Amino acid sequence: xxxxxLFNKKVDRRNFLKASGxxxxxxxxxxxxxxxxxxxxxxxxxxxxxxxxxxxYEFVRNDFVSRLQKGEIPISPETYIxxxxxEIELPKGLTTFMPTADDGRLSQYDSFRRAVDYVQRERGIFxxxxxxxxxxxxxxxxEKNMSMEDIPDDTPCFNDGVNNYMAKVQIIxxxxxxxxxxxxxxxHWFWPSKTELNRNIDIDQGxxxxxxxxxxxxxKRNCKLIxxxxxxxxxxxxxxxSEQGYDCGFITDPQEIDASLKRFAISxxxxx
Length: 272
What we know:
By secondary structure, the chain is α/β, with parallel strands linked by helices. The protein has helices at 3-6, 31-39, 57-69, 77-84, 106-123, 140-144, 168-176, 196-217, 235-243; strands at 48-52, 73-74, 96-103, 130-133, 180-183, 225-227, 248-250, 269-270. 36% of the residues lie in helices and 11% in strands. The strands form two sheets. Strands 1, 2, 3, 4, 5 and 8 form a six-stranded parallel sheet that branches. A two-stranded parallel sheet has the order 6-7. Strand 3 (96-103), helix 5 (106-123) and strand 4 form a beta-alpha-beta unit.
């Protein structure tokens, strides 16, 4: 069963459980409500935010199928934001998960698309995935002054000489497929080690380039998400993210964070 059916909502590949009236990501949030939600245990079960890096199709498919067999329900980022904003309250005891993938690795493109298609074909459930991609694009924007539109479709989003990364056209296709693209920066820097100016530029440029990808795809960007490279955050970085209008941010390992900034440093369960 899709989670939308539990709420008698129309199924939409992009906006699972989008709050009525105001879009979930646009509402003013209450830090006290967020803190209470994140701390509740037995009655309200917080969604599991799952994190992947390098993957195979079999690994992703088996993980998805296993979760569904255990009764876990997939939710979209819009739904998660609605929960944080206090606009959506999940039924007591309902177990949910939200898959995310970092860096924009090439293995993720084929593996997740095939796994999502398999689950939808076999079970009639669409699983929305959030991809936090890097946006260097061979420095064509920085050094060649090219626009995002002019960058060749086959240009990888990043190049470290070790891993393979998605091409521009593949990221655009994921957007069209109903998945979400989030900010992971341009250069894959550990932001706490950079000057305030340089890390702010890296964050802001990453955000601008993601918006440009949405524009090229012809799809409205319904939420603004960020995942910190290597999980590196400071209070200064979290404040910057808050000021720039992000709906929420994700780290790797749990950290002690001020209650007013918790939504910008949500921990994830790493699987690969």
